[in-house]
Amino acid sequence: MSQVQKKKHSPRIFVAIFLYALAAVLILVSIFGFYLRGAGTTTKNLNSMRTQAVLHSASGGLVDSIANQARADKLKELRSRSDFRTLGLDQVNATCDAAASAARAEAEAIYSNATVNDSTGLENSINAFEKALSVYGGLREKERAIYSDLYVTLVENVPDWTDLVDAAEGDDDKLFSSLSSWASSLALSEHAHLKSGFVKLAHAMAEKEQTADDAELLGQLTSSLTRTISDWTTLSGMDDDSLWTALCSEIEGFSENERFRSNLLQTAKKYISAAEKGEVISEEVKDSGAATVYDTVTDYSFFTASDEMSAASEGVESAYQELWSELTEIIPDLANLDKKMQKNIRTTLENTVWPGDTDFSTRFTAYAAQKGDGILSGTDAFMMRLSSLARNILIAGIALLLLATLLMFWKTLTDRFGIPRTIITLFFIYLCLAAILYDISVPMMLSNVMIRMGMYGILVLAMMPGIQCGIGLNMGMTIGCIAGLLGVVLSLQFDLVGWHGLIFACVSGALISLPLGWAYSKLLNRMKGNEMTISTYVGFSFVALMCIGWMMLPFNNPKIIWLLSGHGLRVTHSLLGSYAHLLDEFLSFEILGVEVPTGLLLFLLFCCLLMWLFSRSRTGIAMTAVGSNPRFAEASGISVNKMRTIGTVLSTMIAAVGIVIYSQAFGYAQLYTAPRQLGFIAASAILIGGATVRKAKVSHVIFGVFLFEGVLVLGQQIANAAVAGGGLSEVMRIMISNGIILYALTQTGGASRE
Amino acid sequence: MSAEYILEMNSITKEYGSNAVLKDVTLRIRPGEIHALLGENGAGKSTLMNVLFGMPVIHSTGGFKGQVFLNGEPVRILSPMDAMEKGIGMVHQEFMLIPGFSITDNIKLNREITKPWPISKILGKDLEFLDRRSMSKDARHALDSVGMGIDEYALVSGLPVGHMQFIEIAREIDKTGVKLLVFDEPTAVLTESEASQLLNVMKEIASKGIAIIFITHRLDEVMNAADNITILRDGRLVKTLAKSETTAEQLAALMIGRGDDSVIQVEKRKDAPSENIAMTIRNLWVNMPGEVCRGINLDVYEGEILGIGGLAGQGKIGIPNGVMGLYEAIGDVELFGKPLPLNNTASALKSGLAFVSEDRRGVGLLLDQSIEDNIVFSAMQVHGSYLKGPLHQKDSKKIRKTAEELIQQLDIRCTSPAQATGTLSGGNQQKVCVARALMLNPKFLFVSEPTRGIDIGAKQLVLETLVRLGREQHMTIVMVSSELQELRSICDRIAIIAEGKVASILRPEDSDAAFGLAMSGAQLKGGEAE
Questions:
Q1: What is the per-residue pLDDT across B473-526, written as a single tens digit (0 to 9) for each?
Q2: Chain A, chain B: beta-carbon pairs less than 8 Å apart
Q3: I need a labelling partner for A69 at 20 to 30 A (CA). Which of A76, A289, A493, B472 fits?
Q4: What is the pTM of this model?
Q5: Min CA distance, B299 vs chain A (Å)?
Q6: Topology annotation, domain A423-748
Q7: Spatial separation of the C-alpha atoms in residues B56 and B23, rounded to whole Å
């Protein structure tokens, strides 16, 4: 047998050694990457790479702009031809495409001629970029400051400003626009006596809005004038009225917009006279016809830009000028482009370097990761990639190292700690190392872990008597949780605050849970062997039943019921006014930036001590025996059912106290479906601590809640740091907790093995 | 070609690890004979049959030594299926019937007669129709030949147990080419009339030239039906006899056989046992699955060691379990003159009884807890000892001291009193169980199968401990054991249980034949023993 086992071990050690080697290689590579990133000699090189990347991106936009411009020009040209209408759509498209691709090819040729040969020039251009960006940032800040000045004025002058603030939902821009619309409505409804600058602004804005709308409409009508009528000569010699009638009959939308009559008639006459002279109406003429109406003037005279604002925008301008000159040095052909083109390039550059709120280096890294291979030569691209991936490679190396250690000492570790505990502990260590690399604040993390330990600790402790008495993982502890929540809402109903409220909630919750737990244990005693299934179902269905219960119970304190219907408890109850964080802050102190919730931890330890004393008493020992071997206990004259009842009731009562403590640490009591998942969290925590579905100790509770919450707190932060967007930590919690429960069940063959 | 023997198993040796369960056993069966295979539990009958049927358990543990000939030709039987194809059938002790199927379906299971139809010709034989008419005909024929008048289309589920046995036989007979049938304790669940009908059927089958291996404990049936008899004991062939040249007494003696390797030699007690009755058991019925007691009457004298023996499944283990209240029991039990309430373990323990269970790992120990906790557990729960303080906390120091004393006294081999009992060897676990019972300071001790699964040295220690307790501390001990040797070596009297009743109460020095007969239940017909 021993020989067979030896043979079984060898491949694992083999794999472990291989993983060690791999981990060592990765760690060395990552160190090299960090060196590349930090070493002075490579900075210049890197910077040149960056500029190249930016230019590449800019040139992409440039080429696109040129192609688009060429297409638009071609289209204009086609339109101006008299046979435009006879051309099919396909033909027009094909012609335009051909023009665009020709222009594109030309532009690409220009770009490929550009050579990066002057490293100083490159650095300058980079600096110019970054300077421009920072100036832009300053400008934004200024705008915001002006906005907030406006708010202050408003708050002083306007009676109902809170409603407006609420409607804006914290969005400055929204608030601003709702303020202006409010102000304009105020002004328009003859409250002209309120002559603050703001009303003027509102008037001006409303006016501008109206004018802009009109201008847009007029522009549309004007362009439909040119589009619809191809032969203007037929309209010559008409007087104003008949011309207007003719236009109205010919063109949609004219009859409804009598107010633009004179403007439109003027344009039409211009076209007619041009047609009579036999001229082709040029695009410029058409454009100017439409454009004149766009240029409406708004009177902002009362609103002057501050000095800083002007300076900031000048700064931006000059930064771009600098950048532009650098660029034209690198790519001389750029200077030959017309003004419109240059403007396009400028926009493209802006968008490339700062499309959102991200800073330049983040943007660059993302860009380089995406395009790095394409724009840089082989070695350069590889080096750049390496330097940007160094951190990830290091983390992967550490993970492999831990994995290899796990495999190498698998037997020793699992014999000593059990498989789940080994894996979770190593995962925890890995998370700690990753936390350092991701620069997550360790004191804050520790405080979080401690608070969550205290929060969940007693709920996890509630699992212990359940396991000891043989009903396994007591998923039905939600019954106790609901009893505890009843205690909490009772204390709120009677307006009990402070220690009185907390103690009242604990005691009344425990008392309510007593008969519930007893009835629940009777059910479990009839279903021996299926406790896990039964308790899960009972837990869920009791939550569902109480969803009705919370609505029906005759609570009447207006602080806790739905105000509209006048009965039924609300979903979330804030304990901030009564006893939130009471235990957390009891004797709490701060050391090295770590806030220690002394009261919470002391209470958890006190409960654990009581549980420990109980498990060493005659009844506790008998209960443990019933859990680990009911037939043995029976042979010693112990009533198995009685012990199971004691264990179940105890578990339910501890859960009731646990949820009160949980709620006070959380600051809110959540009713309805909120307690549904608590059983799973508690079960997986105690299993991680080393308990099985047959055996549990106080040490399992403490160690388990520490590991479980530690992994969650750390995991959450690291997941947020590594992957943008939330939700990952919740997924991880579900995976860990359910995975652990599943593992525990496979290890014991389920609770049904008697 | 017709050989003299239809089956020859020559010099079969089978070892599980280093433990030989069959040593050089030879079995020869002639065509058309009923050959009885006799032996106690664990004599090697089942292993021999496993070899014959090529059961996977044999192949997976390293095969066996020796040769098997069928019809004079050497064969290698690879699997039960292979055995079936070679014409060897088995009538199982546990019925392998499908309750929701009719008798015909059960008899023809997996050998259905089918007829083709167009689609089956295209898509294969699996889609052919069942030819119910000819199946029923075959089933009818098979049922008739075992003397069953029952309708072949009845469902199996509602039938009495006895009928199932016959259906099982009918199924084997229906197989074409069956040359050899094995009956594994076929009469165990049958009533007397059913049993005699079965024997007649067996004879009829044998008269058609099919050989039968008949495994049983009942000597009277052997004497009634068998032609030849092979007796196994401790994995060895004792003897092969023709029925005509032997008697039931001789068979019983051969079966029990008193070896020289008796477990221990204890000097017989010199003083006469007490006349005072410690426990009277009257009409005790115990509902313990597999070990049902059906009206036990027994007196136990103060200070004696009473052995309870018998074959497995006869009900001997039910007695202590019933008295201790671990299984449902009815009847009257008096302990030292006071009536003992049944089905109440706590009061049984309080009135001075203690019990070392036969199920050491299942009932006897908390495997994941320490030796010391195991030892004091019952005493703490029953008498409330080893507790201290107002909170009834366990007194670890006192427990450690007591445990160390007992470990020394009983020679429990362990690293420390805190070692988990699950990691101890079987013998040491047994000593922990005994220690736990002794902690109760019992006046009356039940010990059930104390030597099961432990090595010879430990066996000796356990038995010596029991004798010492009896002789020196005048404890009344009732020891239940399947090992007749050890009962005969330490007990003052031995009650043999058969079919849930006391078959006979014997002295250790009574003859092997007397024990053999009592165990096979032969004397039952003469009424209660004594």
A1: 888 999 998 888 888 888 888 999 988 888 888 888 888 888 888 887 754 444
A2: 72
A3: A289
A4: 0.61
A5: 23
A6: ABC transporter involved in vitamin B12 uptake, BtuC (1.10.3470)
A7: 20
